[in-house]
Amino acid sequence: MGTALDLLDVDASLSEEERQIRAVVRQLVDDRVRPHVAGWYEDGQVPARELAREFGRLGLLGMHLTGYGCAGASAVAYGLACLELEAGDSGVRSLVSVQGSLAMYAIWRFGGEEQKRRWLPAMAAGEAIGCFGLTEPDHGSDPASMTTRARRDGDDWVLDGAKMWITNAPVADVGVVWARTDEGVRGFLVPMDAPGVGAREIRRKMSLRASVTGEIVLDGVRLPADALLPEAVGLRAPLSCLTEARQGIVWGALGAARDCLETALSYAATRTQFGRPLAGFQLTQAKLADMAVEWNKGLLLALHLGRLADAGTLRPEQVSVGKLNNVREALTIARQCRTILGANGVSGEYPVMRHANNLESVLTYEGTSEIHQLVIGQRLTGLSAFG
Ligand SMILES: Cc1cc2nc3c(=O)[nH]c(=O)nc-3n(C[C@H](O)[C@H](O)[C@H](O)COP(=O)(O)OP(=O)(O)OC[C@H]3O[C@@H](n4cnc5c(N)ncnc54)[C@H](O)[C@@H]3O)c2cc1C
Known about the structure:
- By secondary structure, the chain is α+β, with helices and mostly antiparallel strands.
- It has helices at residues 16-43, 48-57, 75-88, 90-110, 113-124, 236-270, 282-311, 316-340, 352-364, 369-381, and strands spanning 66-67, 70-71, 130-133, 149-153, 156-167, 174-181, 184-191, 197-201, 213-223, 228-233, 272-273, 276-277.
- The strands form 4 sheets. It has a 4-stranded mixed β-sheet with strand order 3-6-7-10. Strands 4-5-9-8 form a 4-stranded antiparallel β-sheet, with helices on one face.
- A hairpin with a 2-residue loop joins β4 and β5 (156-167).
- The protein is globular, with a radius of gyration of 21 Å.
- Belongs to the acyl-CoA dehydrogenase family.
- Residues 234-380 form the Acyl-CoA dehydrogenase/oxidase C-terminal domain.
């Protein structure tokens, strides 16, 4: 897109504004992410606060939301931004997705006026970081079974439980935490420095190492009545946030795949074996052609879903089609590109294996492939096969 990879001239169907936003984000990634990301990944450390402020300055945080300091961009523009960010690293795109599409979206969609004013402008500017706690140590794909509890005590709420694998938790100022109550699942805004809140970093990840992930422990956390998100009632609320965030992933995964493909194309053009560049072998061209075809199909899918979102007609199972296909294909592309680089493919000097490793997390979070297959299967058959 904007490159030789754009076999189908998809670029031509983007508006001038969409192309401009893409160019700005691509430049930011070139300047601020690419030179450092291999080191962040290797060290398992990322300057999340610094990056959040820079992304905030560019209007990337909650950019598809309106009001409260948010940019009000189209779904397609937001998707293109995710693609460019993830061409840098899936962890960097995750920072933006969790902030904008999970934490900010939950407050924007389900919060009261005071809550929105308190948090959204600061989060849009990257001055405050949010996280989104749904997954628990014993409940991942099946959040309906969650055991984190919130009980009323006078006007207050008291929360007990644990959330696992929570992006940004150790660096967050506020957590959107989902808990079981007598009225069903409700959402709470938890200041991460409140007494009884712990956020331990999960270390030794082999994937998404340029992203901070943590476990949230809630031990008798007492919150005032206004910590409750008033409009979020039932599991539908957090699930709608996930539908929102998955749209960014549909695009983002293509960014990681594009970076792999561009790396493989340039490597194959210059690496010579048997007296000719790897790119000149039919077997290499077959790989490149198949990958480029899948990438372009994925891009058409992302654009179609983005246009449906902008028209206000996008349905959750359509997002499942995009998440399932684009992440699965991106991972296949990353692994295939790695073979083209031979031994260099396993080196951190090249981005390919980092992207492939990252995409393993992207395949799992925001609904695993199997869960999206079940969503699509239910739509096709009318039968739920989850339980
Ligand atoms: C790096 C990273 C960051 C994350 N960030 C967040 C975050 O910010 N917030 C958050 O809430 N969560 C986050 N997650 C958690 C993620 O959403 C969960 O890992 C995911 O939902 C899967 O849950 P699980 O890991 O418990 O796997 P499980 O639910 O235990 O599933 C294990 C395997 O069984 C399969 N399976 C489960 N049920 C079925 C079924 N009915 N039929 C067939 N197969 C099934 C799954 O598809 C999977 O392959 C993150 C995860 C990672 C890795």
